[in-house]
Each structure stands twice: as structure tokens, then as C-alpha cells.
Specification:
The complex is a heterodimer of chains A (114) and B (109).
Chain A (H helix, E strand, L loop, with lengths): L4 E3 L2 E4 L5 E6 L6 E8 L3 E9 L2 E4 L8 E7 L2 E6 L8 E8 L8 E2 L3 E5 L1
Parallel strand pairs in A: 2-11
Antiparallel strand pairs in A: 1-3, 3-8, 4-5, 4-9, 5-6, 7-8, 9-10, 9-11
Chain B lengths: L3 E4 L2 E5 L4 E7 L3 E9 L5 E7 L2 E5 L2 E6 L4 E6 L8 E9 L5 E3 L3 E6 L1
Parallel strand pairs in B: 2-11
Antiparallel strand pairs in B: 1-3, 3-8, 4-5, 4-9, 6-7, 7-8, 9-10, 9-11
Classes of the chains: A mainly beta (114), B mainly beta (109).
């Protein structure tokens, strides 16, 4: 398996534009996590899915953020409209079980909103 | 107060030195993770443990549940060990990971 695959690796966009980040988890993993990493706050959980169902989205900062998992092999994180403070590295991770199993991270998407 | 705290924040060492990074947590946990992040960003899981000790090559992770403390040790450190090491605790009631702020390690030849 190629691991967790995220795209794009880098995204530069103008304030107000819609941004969509994509993630393909490892096949057979039932859990998918979206994290955001900033210098100020470190790594933070945004949302996680179990068997394609959102379980906890309490970390999603505002209504501008939304995430979907239409099937077991694909998830998106959308920001609309984007703002400069959304600039961060966004990681997707997947695992067989929940937080008690090893998490496998994607390479991340570095988002810059200007 | 952060629920997961790491120390030190920054660490420099000479090649060959023994290194210890500490992690303390205040929440009830079901597992403790150690992650490694190299410059350029990728995050790799090093260990997941809920009791005792685990060893992988030159890396050793220990946890003391009673004291709510874990350590990551690197024996015979090497410049390629230079990275940020992140401790993360799985909250037992939410199953979510709470992350420490990381320890930036630089090992010089």
C-alpha cells in the first residue's frame, strides 16, 4: 500500500477563494482523521470519521470548514471562504481502529492563503 | 495548562550521546503515542504504548501510568535523528489524540 495520500502537497490561494484538500486513506483502515498544524497551536484534531461517518467535528474551527467522506477510500476537507489565518499544514491520517491503534499520516498539505 | 506537556522544547546533542525526551499528561488515557516529524513535514508513528516499555532499534519508549509520564530515549544518537518528536495521548473517554507541542532535536556530528 502506498500509505495515506494527500493532495495537493502545496496550495496557495487568495483570501475568499474556496480550497479543497483531498485524502486517500490506507485500504482497510476504518478511521480517518483530519489535523491542522500551526506554529502557534501545534497539531490539532479537526474532525474524524469511522466507517465514513463523522464522529467528532468539535475541532472544526468555524462553519467555513467542512469535511466529507463519501466512501472508504476518499475524504475532502473544504474551506470556503478561505482566510489568511487558515494558513497551516493540514494532515490526514488513518488507522485500523481509533486512538488505540497506530496512526498513519499523509505527507500533509501546506496551505497558504494570501 | 496543556493537557500534554513535553520537555525539553529544544535539545541539541553530539553524535553518540544518549537522549531523553519527557512527556507528562494530566488526562486519563488509553494509549500514548510518540511521533517523529522531519524537516519537510512528514509525520511517522514511532511507538504506541499503554504500559511498560517498547524498543525499536536505538529507540526506547517507556510509560508510567501511575505517574502519568512517558519518556522517549535515543541511544547512540546520530545526525539523522534530528527531527521534532511529538508525544500524543489518546483520551480514554473520547478516543481522540491530544498532542504535546513537540521537542526539536538537533544532533551534530
Amino acid at each position: 500500500d502506498a500509505g495515506v495520500i494527500q493532495s495537493p502537497r502545496h496550495e496557495v490561494t487568495e483570501m475568499g477563494q474556496e480550497v479543497t484538500l483531498r485524502c486517500k486513506p490506507i485500504s482497510g483502515h476504518d478511521y480517518l482523521f483530519w489535523y491542522r498544524q500551526t506554529m502557534m497551536r501545534g497539531l490539532e484534531l479537526l474532525i474524524y470519521f469511522n466507517n465514513n461517518v463523522p464522529i467528532d467535528d468539535s475541532g472544526m474551527p468555524e462553519d467555513r470548514f467542512s469535511a466529507k467522506m463519501p466512501n472508504a477510500s476518499f475524504s475532502t476537507l473544504k474551506i470556503q471562504p478561505s482566510e489568511p489565518r487558515d494558513s497551516a499544514v493540514y494532515f490526514c491520517a488513518s488507522s485500523v481502529g481509533g486512538g488505540n491503534t497506530e496512526a498513519f499520516f499523509g505527507q500533509g498539505t501546506r496551505l497558504t492563503v494570501v | 495548562k496543556n493537557e500534554v506537556e513535553q520537555s525539553p522544547q529544544n535539545l541539541t546533542a553530539q553524535e553518540g550521546e544518549f537522549i531523553t525526551i519527557n512527556c507528562s499528561y494530566s488526562v486519563g488515557i488509553s494509549a500514548l503515542h510518540w511521533l517523529q516529524q522531519h524537516p519537510g513535514g512528514g509525520i511517522v508513528s514511532l511507538f504506541m504504548l499503554s504500559s511498560g516499555k517498547k524498543k525499536h532499534g536505538r529507540l526506547i519508549a517507556t510509560i508510567n501510568i501511575q505517574e502519568k509520564h512517558s519518556s522517549l530515549h535515543i541511544t547512540a544518537s546520530h545526525p539523522r535523528d534530528s527531527a521534532v518528536y511529538i508525544c500524543a495521548a489518546t483520551e480514554w473517554d473520547t478516543d481522540k489524540l491530544i498532542f504535546g507541542t513537540g521537542t526539536r532535536l538537533q544532533v551534530f556530528p
